[in-house]
Write a structure and sequence with these properties.
Layout (H helix, E strand, L loop, with lengths): L1 H23 L9 H28 L4 H23 L1 H27 L2 H25 L5 H23 L3 H29 L7
Helix pairs in contact: 2-3, 2-4, 2-6, 2-7, 3-4, 4-5, 4-6, 5-6, 6-7
Length: 210
């Protein structure tokens, strides 16, 4: 009787241990498909482009919600950083968020200089903006060989050009050009977002549902 009880206890202990090991690994049912991750990533980068536009409109018009929108925009950069943490770790996610926050801070200076008509300051801030874009491209390409640095630089600089076009068009009250710059920028940002997701899926296929 004692021997039987002993084996039952051992069997239960083994079962508990195996359950613990299984629980430590992400179950297949918990994994997201590439399409779902792509949708989530698109939402984050759409927020990026949308709140950037909202900031441009409010800052140029001197609206009272400018700081509130700026805070939401900064939070979006933390959200983007958090999105890559499951693949690259906390340090990488925090680094990306910090680089993107610099991107937003410089953008605010670009808007400020453009609004003031200070061309020298505008040129200086745009130069810093471009250098920051290069830093982001270098960081991302270092994390994933599927993200080519030259391609990322081209995409990020295109994002800066279209965002600048929004600012200058609104200052000129050229609403048609302003609308086109935003529409083009929106489509471009979705393309950039999809490139990020596709790169992650190629690098870590086991982290996605089949």
């Amino acid at each position: 009787m004692k021997k039987t009880t002993h084996w039952i206890v051992l069997a239960m202990a083994a079962a508990i241990a195996l359950a613990g090991i299984a629980g430590a690994r992400p179950a297949a049912a918990d994994l997201k498909s590439v399409a779902d991750v792509k949708s989530d990533m698109r939402k984050l980068w759409e927020d990026h482009i949308t709140y950037t536009r909202n900031y441009i409109i409010s800052a140029l018009a001197g609206l009272p919600d400018t700081d509130t929108i700026a805070n939401r925009l900064f939070r979006n950069q933390d959200e983007i950083g958090t999105a890559i943490k499951p693949y690259y770790g906390d340090a990488a996610g925090n680094k990306l968020a910090a680089l993107l926050k610099d991107h937003i801070s410089i953008a605010a200076e670009v808007v400020k200089a453009a609004k003031a008509g200070n061309n020298d300051q505008l040129a200086e801030q745009q130069k810093k903006w471009g250098a920051n874009a290069d830093d982001i491209a270098k960081f991302l390409s270092g994390a994933n060989s599927n993200w080519k640095e030259a391609d990322l630089k081209n995409m990020l600089h295109r994002h800066l050009d279209l965002t600048t076009a929004e600012v200058t068009s609104r200052l000129k009250k050229d609403w048609v050009a302003d609308e086109k710059a935003y529409d083009d920028g929106h489509v471009h940002m979705l393309m950039f977002s999809d490139a990020l997701t596709e790169g992650i899926a190629k690098q870590y296929p086991d982290k996605f549902a089949k």
